[in-house]
Fold these 2 entries.
Entry 1:
Amino acid sequence: MHMDIVMQAVEEMRLKDPVRFNQLVEEGMAMELGFIGGPSKKQKSVDKLKKEIFPENPDYAAVSQGVLDGKRKVVEELVSKLLGSGKDPVDVVTHALMPGIQVQCELYDMGMSYVPEILMSNDAMQGGIGLCQSKIGDVPSKGDVISFVAEGDLHDIGKNICAAILKANGFKVTDLGRDVPKDVVLDFVKKNNVKLACGSTLMSTTKPGLIDTALLLELEKTGVPVACGGAAVSKAFVDTFSNSLYTKSPLETVKAATGICDGSKKWTDFRS
Amino acid sequence: MNGQAVALDIGTSGIRGQLLDLGSEHVVRTCVTSRNPIPGSNVMDHLSFAMTRGEDVAHGILLSAVHEVVDRLRPERLDRLSVCGNPIQLSLLEGIEIRDLAYAGENKLRSENVGAVDRSGHVSDGSALGFDGTEVVVPPAVRHEIGADALAMMLKSGFLDDDMCMVTDYGTNAEMALKVGDRIFTGSAAAGPALEGQQVTCGMLAGPGAVCDLVRRPDGWTAMVLDESLTPVEGPLVNLRSDIIRQSGRIPDGITGTGVVALVHAGMADDRILDSSIRNDPIRITRKVRFWDRDLKEAGKAMGAIRAGHMTLMASAGVSPEEVRTMYMAGATGTYVDPLKARDLGLVVPGCTRILQVGNTSLELAKDLALDPDKIGELNRLRSRLLTEHTMFASSDVFRDLYVMELGYWTGGMPLGRYRRLLESLGLGGYLDMRADASVEKTCQRDIRDIGESLDMIDTGVTLSGGWECSGCMRCVEGCPEGALSSSDGRFVVDTGRCLGTACLRCEENCPEKAFTYSCLGL
């Protein structure tokens, strides 16, 4: 296709939907999403996505829809019914619950859904996963990750968004909560097969908690780095101490977690 | 000769002081600073500075700024000094424990062995603060989070004598309270300084040359600009739809907090701002004064925090927005902003039928105490009687859900329709579209009710300085985003009022030799 036409399409999009445009540029996905050739992903409606991703079994699809709508009660009810009728819990997680959040994430990537909706969907999915876990223990994941807010701080909106998006991308996330002392992180890391700790803080007074945690995990030779984020945290700050990396957005955290959990990257690869 | 007293309000964005004549109880003159002298742009940064550099340094900076203000007021004989403000500034001034204010989490307080701190009101000898022969009056904090400034806001607005009413101080840290019968629900939302004209590209504090409002004309909006006596005069005419500007009247230099509110309101009314983003970014007022999409997001976060805070208080009290009848707006922004525009943007509870703009209540309380220090006893009794039910927004699930939605709307591009539906699912449907017929009363024309014979605006001259061996490449000075750093003869000097403190440290970062050491700078 001629470059002019591509540029025209890009320009058109910039005017029509600047928010989405900026998002795409940021994530470097403008090309990937098919401005060049073929129908663009954006034109796919929610229905089409559902058709692609949702399970065929109507009982399973109802669960996926519940997750997509962010209705925790509905999901829990449906899941316990499915489990009661003898369905395999792992199957319920992977083929009933996950497709719901997958559609939500696709929509988010396309700029058609927003963070609050991801959080609600995640909440609904967690309700369902909780029921399944009580049946079988752990469900398969891309890797074990923990999330926490530094000691002294209670602001956890950012951490929750990050944890939800990590979960939606197939990681097993254990949330240690807020106001978490470094020893609690160390203790958990020692007892579990954790690959990455994600710490955040909003207050500038509690930033040292992230340094202490990263250094303690290094000193104790756990091999677990700390991915740092949050309003008070900047790249320059994270660059001042070792065993740490800075992730600006939840999507960057997902990228880092993917590399670190599959063993292809170390924390040093994310530092300049 | 009558005795004299000085009343001070130490706020996050500056110090306001008034000299009072104790005999006639009149204000003699007023002096305000353009900034808070401690490095940092919000209270958390102030605390962070005090903890990393030592509280004595922060105390020293604040104290010398206070002395500067008092000297500027030229008291002939100073009998008394009364100080009101948020607990952080007051504790730094008195040099008492601050760690309980620095950490929100219990674990950290326990591991640092921080016990309960007594912040009841008291009258003490001024020699500890360098005011020999002067008594110093400090009002009580209700408790940990609700400082003397919040007490002043409730006491000096008329809020406590009313019912089903809400009061908010529209500052960097927006204190708010809701009164239902005898019960008072309080909270404080970290709104950020956008509503005071800071952290906005062309933002400035309210001063000569600041755009403070926009007035509808048949062919656009006339920007109202503050002149030398801080009176709004007509400036350029801006058509937001066609983006055509007609220069006339006073030329603006920047936009102040109330101007930001007016601009966002006008942008939405003329469809220039759609779904919380600016079309054809930026909005121009002049060739130099522009309002960008990122400024809108900054303002949105502040307005969203206040709206989410209001909704959270009503949810904790179990009252619906229609039931709250009166809104008291305190602080400089609360006094000068157009209340109906503020309401349309969610800064005022939409069901209110009566809106009162009450000015700077913190300075009023300081004034009362300067004239009659015995009121401290009364305040301490009131403090224990106030059955406030405080919602810590940081740990409230309701606030969290609401604020995530506000963030989604203001910074994530979530359409308003989607926000409406999400609110409905929380049982708050219709909040965004509710508009009651409201009457507006201004109980004072200025935020400082009476300025006396003159009003001085000063830049505090407090500096930190130090020197070390380096090549003198000056990258630190050039890279300072606030122009706070200068150098001469191998010594580096930081204007503490402008410096962003521990949140920035770009001077250290930019130094190629790693010679710059912020912590080596001293008073």
Entry 2:
Amino acid sequence: MNSADWQRWLENWLARHPLKSPTRVAGADYTRQVMARICAPSVPVQVEHRVPVWTAVSVCLGIVAGSSILFFGIRNPHRDLVQQAERNQQILLDVSNAIERHGDELDEALRMNNEMLADSLSEEASVARSELAPGELELLP
Amino acid sequence: MTSDEEIIEWVLRGEVDRYAELVERYQQSMWRLAYGMVGDFEDAKEISQNGFFKAYRHLAGFRRSARFSTWLYRIVVNECKDFFRRKGRRPVFVQLPSDPESEEAVLFEVADPRGDPGDAVAQRELAVALSQAIEQLPMKQRMAFTLRHLQGMSLEEISQVMGCRTGTVKAHLFRASEHIRILMEPFVKEEADR
């Protein structure tokens, strides 16, 4: 038996043999039992207070406005502080990088300056000595 | 006849007694639905009454976009699920009596007024086999099968009651039908041969 035949057979059989009806069992007090439970003083209907649309809209707008104030009033100063700190950090980084890049050159330049200074000092000293007349004693500082 | 919506309005305004009209109107359907699911009249009665009670308690939350009966079906279906959970994971809770002659062994009316009275025994065998095959179905398949074939609901209505898409309902129905077909094949063949 294929699926289509089976479906036909099932529907045909169920049409002739319906589900048993509960009326076979004493069911006269069904409604009374339900109503007895409902009308018990301890079982009130749960009333859901429906909020009018305009109230809901007002509350939503209030929440949005409050959030905006909080967002722009509190969050921005923090953001300025963070930006200032980031700028400072960037400056320090730039200085640090410059020192790293030019550190060797600076050392070299400094060393050459020192040498030149030393050379010029020694030249001046020798010129001064040569200008002294023979027999004059060099005055020591 | 007063509409469901009108009665609900009256009840919510404080005329609680008018809820009895809704109970009268739908008690057979709800009781039968629960019976199709659990296979016992007393359990089915309690389950469906719990459904009416819960529906009353949450009446103010009922959305008028759906039909009251659909909403009530859904509540009763959930009550059946709770019943299954209390009894165990699968709906193998239906203790059909081992004696096949017992009146409680079948979910269906066996006496067919249009049929041959001599055929009653064979029909009873089929009824017992079909009851047992339905009993073996997983819960959702059984639910879909009961709502479709025993309550006569449309796929759309079943999807609303079960809270799933119609495609899912179709899948449940197909699997349920195939499962029962395999179990019923020998009995159906026997009937065809007669």
